[in-house]
Automatic annotation (TrEMBL):
Keywords: Aminotransferase, Isomerase, Porphyrin biosynthesis, Pyridoxal phosphate, Transferase. InterPro entries: Aminotrans_3, PyrdxlP-dep_Trfase, PyrdxlP-dep_Trfase_major, PyrdxlP-dep_Trfase_small. Pathway: Porphyrin-containing compound metabolism; protoporphyrin-IX biosynthesis; 5-aminolevulinate from L-glutamyl-tRNA(Glu): step 2/2. This is Glutamate-1-semialdehyde 2,1-aminomutase. Gene3D superfamilies: Aspartate Aminotransferase, domain 1, Type I PLP-dependent aspartate aminotransferase-like (Major domain). Pfam families: Aminotran_3 (PF00202). Belongs to the class-III pyridoxal-phosphate-dependent aminotransferase family. HemL subfamily. The lineage of its organism: Bacteria, Pseudomonadati, Pseudomonadota, Alphaproteobacteria, Acetobacterales. It is an enzyme of class 5 (isomerase). It comes from Acetobacter garciniae. One of its GO terms (molecular function) is glutamate-1-semialdehyde 2,1-aminomutase activity. One of its GO terms (biological process) is porphyrin-containing compound biosynthetic process.
Length: 435
């Protein structure tokens, strides 16, 4: 913290108008957040003039980094034509066609303004289609801020029974919400199956993120995903894949990688090319709950800015840039970064690991095997070591999420990866010296 910091001055002003100076919990930082001035490619510059490699890329959304010229050109063209209307535009058809072409299980889709809304609409669609009230979700998995999606996002060890239970995340969560959410352990197919079967007549859907960030960013086992698919079919519930983040794992998203087809899939982040977006898509018969052509739909859904042509055009440009070669290159950079960080942990004799897949990476300051939310939750000494590590990165020109998440971008170079590995090596040295 520097007394002359422009960020600090901005934060002091912010505290007058925003609660705690903040309007987005996820970007809060102590003693004050770093305010960003601009970004270009793999870099960001803060208001104090410091340059860093951006390894969080707006929490995984900016897969092409910042101010990509092709995306900017697409947006500029749309700006001249108008930004949003009370009528549909061709852009929404173009993006829907593109996504339906990439994800086999998605035959029809609907756009929203955020991943939160996409998950909300998917859950509501499942309820409307099945006529059942309950949703099953994984303990510790984040799916945005719909009440039902937030249940058991961060239960403390004091609440850990043998089976997960429905624990409120936010104060004021109604009991009825908790009653309608069944919480499953991650990567435990037998327990998940047993808990789902206990609600077989009332469960509308099982929601799963195949590599849930907050539950450790470790991939679901193939057995786990297969068990969820099978038990959903057995009881007539829908399987919803939350691909708001995992869609950046491959050209067709996560489903081909796990060899599964979901009934509904939620999207967000990268499909908007840096503009607000979300989408839900899936089986044509399920998506028909939204169809207004025969009168009032079973599930009406609007949204003043849903499918606005700026987000649509930016998303189309971003996805067109993401060819197979782009995913291969991102995954190779991710593998090299994981290997480099893991080698640094070994060299310094510090207990830690870099997990994840493709362009997504998370650092845990523990040697214990991470398989779910409970094994991922840092013990107090690990949380302290993680804070030291993250500050070490920040001070060496690397910006990542405070809880150890990194998401790579296509403008990153091999030299950028070398820089991040070098910074991580030195930051792990800080951890070694701090104990
Ligand atoms: N689902 C997942 C898996 C997410 O990671 C997020 C956001 N990080 C959301 C849903 C919610 O998306 P949004 O922030 O766009 O509302």
């Amino acid at each position: 913290p520097s007394p002359a910091s422009v960020s600090r001055a901005l934060y002091e002003r912010a505290t007058q108008f925003l609660p705690g100076g903040n309007t987005r919990t996820t970007v809060y930082m102590k003693p004050y957040p770093i305010y960003v001035a601009r970004g270009a490619g793999s870099r960001i510059w803060d208001v104090d003039g410091d340059e860093r490699i951006d390894c969080i890329n707006n929490f995984t959304a900016q897969i092409h980094g910042h101010a990509h010229p092709v995306i900017n050109e697409a947006v500029r063209k749309q700006l001249e034509l108008g930004t949003c209307f009370g009528l549909p535009t061709e852009a929404e058809i173009d993006l829907a066609e593109l996504l339906c072409g990439r994800v086999r299980s998605v035959q029809a889709m609907r756009f929203t303004n955020s991943g939160t809304e996409a998950v909300m609409m998917a859950m509501k669609a499942a309820r409307a289609f099945t006529g059942r009230p309950k949703i099953a979700k994984v303990e510790g998995a984040y799916h945005g801020s719909y009440d039902y999606a937030e249940v058991s996002l961060d239960p403390s060890p004091a609440n850990w029974g043998a089976d997960p239970s429905s624990i409120p995340y936010a104060q004021g969560t109604p009991q009825t919400v908790l009653q309608d959410v069944v919480v499953l352990p991650f990567n435990n197919p037998e327990a998940a199956r047993r808990l789902v079967l206990a609600h077989r007549d009332t469960l509308a859907a099982i929601v799963v993120d195949p590599m849930p960030n907050r539950a450790g960013l470790v991939p679901a086992s193939a057995e786990y995903i297969q068990a969820l698919r099978a038990v959903a079919d057995e009881i007539g519930a829908l399987l919803i894949f939350d691909e708001v983040i995992s869609f950046r794992l491959g050209h067709g998203g996560a489903q081909p990688l796990w060899g599964v087809e979901a009934d509904l899939t939620t999207f967000g982040k990268i499909i908007g090319g840096g503009f607000p977006v979300g989408a839900v898509g899936g089986r044509r018969d399920v998506m028909a709950v939204f169809d207004p052509s025969g009168g009032k739909p079973v599930l009406p859904h609007g949204g003043t800015f849903s499918a606005n042509p700026v987000s649509m055009r930016a998303g189309i440009a971003a996805l067109q840039l993401l060819d197979h070669a782009a995913f291969t290159r991102l995954a190779a950079m991710g593998d090299r970064l994981r290997a480099g960080i893991n080698a640094a942990f070994a060299r310094h004799g510090v207990e830690g690991q870099a997990v994840g897949m493709g362009s997504l990476l998370k650092v845990h300051l523990t040697a214990r095997e991470v398989v779910d939310y409970r094994t991922a939750l840092p013990h107090p000494a690990e949380a302290h070591a993680l804070a030291t590590f993250m500050l070490g990165l920040l001070n060496r020109g690397v910006f990542a999420a405070s809880y150890g998440l990194m998401a790579l971008s296509t403008p990153m170079t091999e030299a950028d990866i070398d820089h991040v590995i070098g910074a991580a090596d030195e930051a792990i040295g800080d951890v070694a010296r701090s104990r």
